[in-house]
TrEMBL record:
<keyword id="KW-1015">Disulfide bond</keyword>
<keyword id="KW-0963">Cytoplasm</keyword>
<dbReference type="InterPro" id="IPR036249">
    <property type="entry name" value="Thioredoxin-like_sf"/>
</dbReference>
<dbReference type="GO" id="GO:0005829">
    <property type="term" value="C:cytosol"/>
</dbReference>
<dbReference type="InterPro" id="IPR010357">
    <property type="entry name" value="TXNDC17_dom"/>
</dbReference>
<dbReference type="GO" id="GO:0047134">
    <property type="term" value="F:protein-disulfide reductase [NAD(P)H] activity"/>
</dbReference>
<keyword id="KW-0676">Redox-active center</keyword>
<feature type="domain" description="Thioredoxin">
    <location>
        <begin position="7"/>
        <end position="125"/>
    </location>
</feature>
<comment type="similarity">
    <text>Belongs to the thioredoxin family.</text>
</comment>
<dbReference type="Pfam" id="PF06110">
    <property type="entry name" value="TXD17-like_Trx"/>
</dbReference>
<protein>
    <recommendedName>
        <fullName>Thioredoxin domain-containing protein 17</fullName>
    </recommendedName>
</protein>
<dbReference type="InterPro" id="IPR045108">
    <property type="entry name" value="TXNDC17-like"/>
</dbReference>
């Protein structure tokens, strides 16, 4: 089973990644709007639509890989042009949801995260 991790907010994300050791295994990160309110769903409708696809394809990913679910914050935090997730050269987020292979060029943004074939390729293709 894929090693799952969950992080909320930019500071916690930075802390986690600075200490994180993947053991040389693949690392995939899914950036989503934070889950708010009693229903436990993200405020981001696109993230809500993408998550079931990502979760299904995650079940087919390399069981020794790592998957990090990152909540970027509430809507106001995300919409701020100075949101640190947007400014960080390692993340360069422009759209939610975004899924990427850490330290690799592979990245899916927005509606791409709702396409099982693209999500599967991100999880499973070597290069």
């Amino acid at each position: 089973m894929v090693n799952r991790h969950h992080v909320e907010g930019y500071e916690k994300f930075c802390e986690f990644m600075n200490k994180f050791d993947s053991g040389g295994k693949l690392v995939h990160i899914f950036f989503s709007g934070s889950k708010l309110g009693p229903n436990g769903q993200s405020w981001c409708d696109d993230c809500i639509r993408a998550w079931p696809v990502v979760e299904k394809e995650l079940g087919k990913a390399d069981p020794s890989s790592h998957f990090i679910y990152v909540e970027v914050g509430d809507r106001l935090t995300w919409k701020d042009p100075n949101c640190p997730f947007r400014k960080d050269p390692k993340t360069k987020l422009m759209v939610l949801p975004t899924m990427m292979r850490w330290k690799g060029p592979q990245k899916l943004e927005g509606e791409q995260c709702e396409k099982p074939e693209l999500v599967s390729m991100l999880f499973n293709d070597e290069d």
